[in-house]
Task: inverse folding
């Protein structure tokens, strides 16, 4: 698109301001991770590197980190299965109530976390009589992660021409073989991007977790919450946060590359209904965005 | 074995649909909706203030309390207003960034920007809010930066909540708009220019209408996340939002908390229905 | 879609709907089962189970005395700090903890809800030498049955920043009288709990005697409205409603708040950091002229305790003379154990804190659970639900 110089300048300024808004608090946060004093005042009296080794050696933080990894992995796995199943049903079949599925799937993430958390907690403890544990946390997380997988899968399935699947069937493959050898591989990058997003969502989730976690377990956000106001622990918390961000840069980049993966296998757009392709780049984008 | 199953499913689409949907539907409808329903039933009960036992006799007294006591109307009004403000703010800040990323940036620039926008999502929500709390406090960076200008920062309160929430949910607005703008074919834009439209007109009559559903998609999250949050209001303000009142009442008066929970549920379902009508569901 | 497909799809949805209804029914029946587990006290102390899960006020369970306990008994201490009694009650109701250091505004609820079991005091040898005015009190003894072991007691303090608040206050009017509170607009720190209504009632008892307030937790309509009205007038001047004591410490340290209600723990912590804080003299029991609300805390054991033996061992440990002395001095409260007075680092600690002076505590109104049947014969007092709702309205 051709823009005048002035427009480009205005646009660039707006972008710069926006990015500044996004990054200044993060930079402040990072600076506090080097804060020599326990008290949060500005500017910080001195800088030190001592919090980072302390953070790595902090046993509770390490345990909480591993617990979070565990919970996020299992929740993502469950969401992958359920989200893909639902997406396959909606994208490839017609049936009564089809339109409601998209609505249903987004509810857990659109309704306030506290409502989801209390409802699930109530059902677990009062109706089913089970104790709260990491498993109940995983159930809660999987519930709102389904939509991420579902949306990415549906977007990809709608783009995939059914001709390949029909050809596969014509060649004698049964439904399972077609799914495994034709459909699934072409969905891989969408599922991968969705899984990474779902993982991130689960990893940082605090509200639903608060209500569904058992007394003896701690995810990383729960650990952070517990230590947020303890003056001796706060710098370690900041250091932990910075470490997590640094660790996450690589997966984020991978997720981005996955969504930009060019599809070789017949990714012809289904009609013009879902927008077209971008000329010149020949690259398709998926909807990567979901909290 | 898989062969047998596959033969069973072959030519029986109903069975296929049933098998595909059984898992997700059991989870979402029976598990999730069921839990919601169980919670909402409690809205019609009451609680013994001493023992905490739920009294299962049906009544509307909780809803009456919510309607009659002015404080609940204030709280709901405040929450909805700030949710709307946050959504508007984020849309305004996000659009230029998303537009630049989608239409103006080079290929490498686009990659860098996307990663740059996604990174903040991975830093802990709690630490970000605490960071803001420190920045807005009496001795924090905001006051320190504004002091030479003779101004002082907003401190804690509704303004702080609006600022912090706009900050927190911004990536959730940028990404759908970015994806939506990318889907607009350059050929459409070129055609508009060839027909003689100025960039502003092209923006107003071609780009904006096509991007609008994506903006609505992003707004679902900014609105929903603000509507239910209780941690940010507690950390950067003294004011109660819907989430705070629900949270404070869950242990002492679950029926009242459930009754209040009806409000954001109804609001969000309404919002989702409108959003779907506007085509946002294609852009999430 | 063929009719057959539509019909069977419809059936599927009907089944789903039916399952939902069944779940609802289950919920309706499920939660009305009676909690009859309360009532059985331990008869004999057995071997420790290896761990004990506690809920406590901040500063009550510190490594200085929990680590020696772990070494001596082999019971690992897992402690969850709570900021309000409501939190404690909520946590106890999950049944996942063995015991709690409950204040008077939690004990009655826990007993009535069947969440705690009676305590067999014969299994707690150190109970014998607890101060007599802490035994058989309405907040720890119900229908003649002992429900806990006293931990210690104290008053809620009025604390102020001595650089910012002059002259040094001698009365609660600095936070309760709107005209004076206005001077510190945005810098008043008030406890985020309905118990603050009792603080206002204590103030009104002294300054508006015609309201006839006797017990600040037993308020009729008129008295209640007056107290609530006072707090509503205070609202615009409040900087922060605190429930996390470390949040209050950082607010005072950073200058965000300069005056308000606090506990001894925060006061001494800030003084140790060299911050310019002050409170009414300890010799006066930290009491401003009107007296104050306070608390007398009791260790209670859960009716669903998974580690009852370790819990009994903990209860005996925490009121043993040396430990109770240490606890009292670290937190800054009056010990429950009479023999602790010989073990405090400061030999005058007990007399300074009025540990052995029952008359002093008449001016301290321990936290209580407000009930509607409040002994004035009319059952027209406000109950806890009213207090909670009023607190929501005050905060706005």
Result:
């Amino acid at each position: 698109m051709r823009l005048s110089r002035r427009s480009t300048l205005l646009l660039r300024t707006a972008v710069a301001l926006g990015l500044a808004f996004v990054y200044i608090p993060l930079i402040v946060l990072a600076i506090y991770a080097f804060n020599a004093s326990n008290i949060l005042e500005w500017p910080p009296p001195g800088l030190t590197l001592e919090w980072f080794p302390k953070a790595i050696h902090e046993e509770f933080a390490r345990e909480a980190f591993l617990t979070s990894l565990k919970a996020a992995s299992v929740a993502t796995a469950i969401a992958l299965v359920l989200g893909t199943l639902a997406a396959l049903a909606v994208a490839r079949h017609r049936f009564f109530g089809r339109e409601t599925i998209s609505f249903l799937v987004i509810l857990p993430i659109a309704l306030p976390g506290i409502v989801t958390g209390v409802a699930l907690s109530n059902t677990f403890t009062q109706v089913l009589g089970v104790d709260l544990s990491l498993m109940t946390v995983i159930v809660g997380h999987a519930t709102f992660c389904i939509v991420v997988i579902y949306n990415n899968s549906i977007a990809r399935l709608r783009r995939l021409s059914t001709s390949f699947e029909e050809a596969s069937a014509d060649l004698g493959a049964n439904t399972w073989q077609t799914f495994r050898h034709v459909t699934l591989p072409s969905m891989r990058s969408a599922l991968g991007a969705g899984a990474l997003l779902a993982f991130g969502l689960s990893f940082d989730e605090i509200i639903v977790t608060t209500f569904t976690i058992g007394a003896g377990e701690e995810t990383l956000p729960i650990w952070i919450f517990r230590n947020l106001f303890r003056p001796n622990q706060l710098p370690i918390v900041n250091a932990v946060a910075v470490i997590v961000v640094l660790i996450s840069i690589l997966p984020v980049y991978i997720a981005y590359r996955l969504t930009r993966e060019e599809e070789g296998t017949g990714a012809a757009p289904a009609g013009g209904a879902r927008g077209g392709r971008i000329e010149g780049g020949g690259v398709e984008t998926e909807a990567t965005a979901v909290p | 074995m898989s062969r047998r199953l596959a033969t069973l499913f072959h030519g029986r689409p109903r069975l296929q649909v049933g098998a595909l949907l059984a898992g997700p539907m059991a989870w979402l409808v029976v598990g999730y909706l069921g839990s919601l329903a169980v919670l909402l039933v409690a809205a019609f009960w009451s609680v013994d203030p001493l023992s905490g036992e739920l009294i299962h006799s049906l009544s509307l007294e909780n809803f009456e309390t919510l309607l009659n006591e002015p404080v609940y109307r204030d709280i709901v009004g405040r929450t909805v207003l700030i949710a709307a403000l946050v959504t508007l703010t984020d849309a305004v800040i996000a659009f230029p960034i998303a537009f630049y990323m989608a239409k103006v940036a080079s290929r490498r620039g686009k990659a860098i920007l996307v990663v740059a926008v996604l990174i903040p999502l991975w830093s802990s929500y709690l630490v970000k809010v605490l960071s803001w709390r420190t920045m807005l406090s009496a001795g924090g960076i905001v006051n320190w930066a504004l002091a030479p200008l003779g101004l002082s920062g907003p401190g804690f309160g509704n303004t702080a909540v609006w600022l912090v929430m706009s900050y927190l949910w911004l990536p959730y607005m940028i990404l759908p708009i970015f994806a939506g703008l990318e889907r607009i074919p350059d050929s459409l834009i070129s055609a508009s220019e060839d027909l003689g439209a100025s960039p502003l007109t092209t923006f107003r009559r071609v780009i904006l209408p096509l991007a609008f559903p994506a903006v609505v998609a992003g707004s679902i999250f900014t609105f929903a996340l603000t509507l239910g949050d209780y941690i940010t209001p507690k950390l950067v303000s003294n004011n109660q939002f819907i989430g705070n009142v629900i949270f404070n009442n869950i242990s002492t008066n679950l029926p009242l908390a459930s009754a209040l929970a009806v409000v954001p549920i109804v609001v969000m379902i309404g919002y989702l229905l409108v959003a779907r009508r506007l085509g946002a569901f294609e852009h999430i | 879609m063929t009719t057959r497909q539509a019909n069977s799809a419809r059936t599927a949805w009907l089944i789903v709907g039916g399952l939902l209804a069944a779940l609802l029914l289950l919920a309706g029946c499920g939660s009305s089962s009676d909690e009859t587990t309360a009532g059985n006290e331990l008869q004999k102390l057995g071997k420790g189970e290896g761990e004990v899960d506690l809920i406590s006020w901040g500063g009550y369970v510190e490594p200085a005395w929990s680590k020696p306990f772990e070494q001596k008994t082999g019971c690992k201490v897992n402690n969850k700090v709570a900021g309000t009694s409501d939190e404690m009650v909520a946590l106890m109701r999950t049944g996942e903890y063995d015991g709690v250091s409950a204040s008077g505004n939690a004990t009655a609820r826990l007993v009535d809800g069947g969440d705690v079991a009676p305590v067999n005091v014969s299994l707690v040898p150190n109970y014998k030498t607890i101060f007599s005015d802490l035994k058989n009190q309405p907040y720890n003894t119900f229908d003649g049955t002992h429900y806990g072991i006293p931990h210690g007691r104290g008053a809620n303090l009025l604390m102020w920043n001595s650089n910012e608040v002059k002259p040094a206050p001698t009365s609660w009017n600095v936070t309760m009288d709107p005209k004076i509170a206005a001077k510190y607009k945005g810098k008043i720190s008030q406890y985020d709990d309905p118990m603050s209504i009792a603080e206002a009632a204590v103030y009104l008892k002294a300054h508006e005697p015609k309201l006839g307030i006797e017990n600040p937790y037993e308020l009729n309509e008129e008295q209640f409205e007056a107290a609530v009205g006072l707090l509503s007038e205070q609202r615009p001047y409040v900087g922060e409603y605190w429930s996390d004591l470390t949040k209050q410490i950082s607010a005072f340290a950073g200058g965000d708040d300069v005056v308000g209600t606090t506990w001894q723990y925060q006061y001494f912590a800030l003084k140790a950091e060299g911050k310019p804080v002050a409170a009414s003299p300890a010799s006066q029991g930290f009491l401003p002229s009107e007296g104050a609300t306070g608390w007398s805390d009791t260790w209670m054991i859960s009716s669903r305790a998974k580690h009852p033996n370790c819990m009994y061992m903990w209860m005996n440990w925490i009121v043993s003379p040396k430990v109770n002395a240490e606890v009292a001095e670290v937190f800054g409260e009056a010990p429950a154990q009479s023999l602790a007075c010989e073990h405090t680092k400061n030999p005058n600690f007990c007399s300074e804190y009025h540990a052995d002076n029952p008359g002093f505590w008449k001016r301290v109104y321990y936290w209580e659970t407000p009930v509607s049947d409040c002994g004035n014969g009319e059952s027209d007092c406000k109950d806890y639900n009213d207090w909670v709702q009023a607190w929501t309205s005050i905060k706005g």
